[in-house]
Amino acid sequence: MLILGALPAIACCDATWSEAGDGAPGAAAYDPAPASCGGCHPQQHAEWAASAHARSARQPTFRALLPEVEASWGAAARAACERCHAGAALEPEPAIGCVTCHAATGNRGTRDGRLTVLAGAPLAGPTGAAAGAPHATRDGDFLRAPDLCGTCHEVTGPRLFVEPTLTEFRASPAAAAGLTCQGCHMPRTPDGHTDHRFPGFRDDALVATALRLDVAPLPGGGARVTLTNAGAGHAVPTGATLLRELWVEVDAGDGPRRVITLGADLRDAAGVRVTLPTDAATATIAALAPGESVAADVPGTGAVTARLVARAVEGELAAALGVEDDAPARVIATARLPAR
Ligand code: HEC
Ligand code: HEC
Ligand code: HEC
Ligand code: HEC
Ligand code: HEC
Question: Which residue segment(s) compose the domain that 312 sits in?
């Protein structure tokens, strides 16, 4: 198992979030509101509206954490959380909206949301053609690049909020094979447009494609339960690992018990386990790198049932924040071995 390490307490990020530029030369004015784009691009809008990007500033766990962040780490840390989750300055409502990606022209460092988004920039797209469009368009080299996603999905704080998804991706076999974030997370739909739903940790089917659960008999009796990151282009979990919880429970006829746990172990300065990330001095993250496995052995020769379970927010943390509704435990996969 990969232990991403006892992370140092990093000072609050120095990023100035997404400059609203003076506008590209000769830029046509267009309304940056997603609903306005949706008038002519209804499918992309409907998919995006159901995505995590649309609710990034309103998500219940995010809202519940903000007062804790302010109380423990100060107002500047809270402002850093809000800035990155609000998207570009020119979004009329805080969200990772259409223009945050389509009017982005580059970045000032591939981390911490340092995206450059220019008001009125021609909108980047697959062809750069704009027949009949009320807005200018340009070819989307940067839009298709993992660096667009990675400018936000590579977080170095505040404090323990460290999310190296882009770094994990760059080291992955998926990157070596030429895959991109967009290729896995924005597949083509049957009608040929790009899927804008951005499924993530809350999508059972996607998580099931990432992880393989096996139970096999051991030569001397007993069984081995193995969990493998077989399908993600980064660690599992990645990103919001301080919150996520994934475990394998095994039932060998005597009731379920956990044998493998992925997620964060939070400790205060005295080394005592704590629930809130804002009370922690260190976080040790148990995650599986691409291709990596973790195994546990179960004694006996009776039937064995193994279940992979996920919670978007770890149980005690969800209870402490009052967001249990946002984070039910879900069974992602089941594997069985008959009595030998
Ligand atoms: C530089 C950008 C950036 C900063 C700063 C940032 N985040 Fe995030 N946050 C992200 C990204 C990207 C994700 C998506 C990763 C994932 O879901 O695994 C995310 C995910 C989350 C989630 C999970 C939401 C869900 O749907 O489950 C929560 C909660 C959250 N962040 C809280 C915070 C808090 C609190 C802070 C400040 C202490 C913060 N974030 C700072 C970029 C950022
Ligand atoms: C009044 C209708 C209308 C509005 C409003 C509109 N568009 Fe378009 N857009 C078009 C048409 C027409 C095209 C060209 C044909 C096509 O690709 O659908 C186009 C093309 C595009 C393309 C593809 C460019 C390419 O390279 O192929 C993107 C991306 C795009 N628009 C994004 C947006 C965004 C983001 C907004 C809101 C800020 C928006 N559009 C608002 C009509 C509109
Ligand atoms: C997180 C970044 C992101 C956000 C947010 C986003 N898009 Fe896109 N969009 C993309 C990418 C990436 C492509 C595919 C580009 C390519 O393949 O060349 C794309 C493609 C498109 C296209 C071209 C047709 C297609 O579907 O392939 C349109 C039109 C479009 N987006 C409109 C929108 C609208 C409208 C919104 C807001 C409701 C939006 N996008 C939000 C990243 C984004
Ligand atoms: C402007 C910053 C920003 C950009 C650019 C961006 N994201 Fe995100 N993304 C976020 C934030 C913040 C969240 C967390 C939203 C939440 O869960 O509340 C998020 C959430 C997600 C999720 C859902 C995670 C989950 O567990 O549900 C996926 C998947 C995702 N992003 C993929 C992408 C991809 C692929 C791209 C590039 C095409 C991209 N993002 C570009 C900031 C960004
Ligand atoms: C080979 C396909 C593949 C590639 C490439 C890929 N992902 Fe993923 N991603 C997945 C799968 C499968 C999952 C579900 C497992 C999980 O939630 O960790 C996932 C989950 C996520 C999540 C939710 C993670 C969590 O644990 O909360 C985010 C955020 C994300 N990806 C962002 C990205 C970004 C950003 C990139 C590019 C830097 C990227 N992904 C590249 C397949 C891929």
Answer: 204-337
Spatial CB neighbours of 319, under 8 Å, sequence gap ≥ 6: none
Exposed / middle / buried, residue 48 (Cβ in 10 Å: 0-12, 13-18, 19+) = buried
Q: What is the pTM of this model?
A: 0.95
Residue nearest to atom 30 of ligand 3 (CA): 44
**Residue where a domain stops, chosen among 185, 219, 245:** 185
Q: Which atom of ligand 2 is nearest to the CA of 140?
A: 26
Kindly tell me if the per-residue pLDDT of 181 is higher than 70.
Answer: yes
Angle CA 314–319–323, to nearest 5 = 85
Going from the Cα of 40 to the center of ligand 2, the distance in angstroms, rounded, reads 7
Please identify, among 130, 156, 185, the residue that sits at the C-terminal boundary of a domain: 185
Pocket test for ligand 4, best of 44, 53, 147 (most atoms within 8 A of CB): 53
Tokens, residue 133: 């469009």
- Average pLDDT estimate for 293-299: 96
pLDDT digit string, tens, across residues 303-330: 999 999 999 999 999 999 999 999 999 9
Q: Which atom of ligand 5 is nearest to the CA of 166?
A: 38
Q: Whose CA is nearest to atom 42 of ligand 2?
A: 133
Q: Are residues 226 and 288 in the same domain?
A: yes
Which residues touch 154 (CB under 8 Å, ≥6 apart)?
110, 111, 112, 163, 164, 165, 166, 167
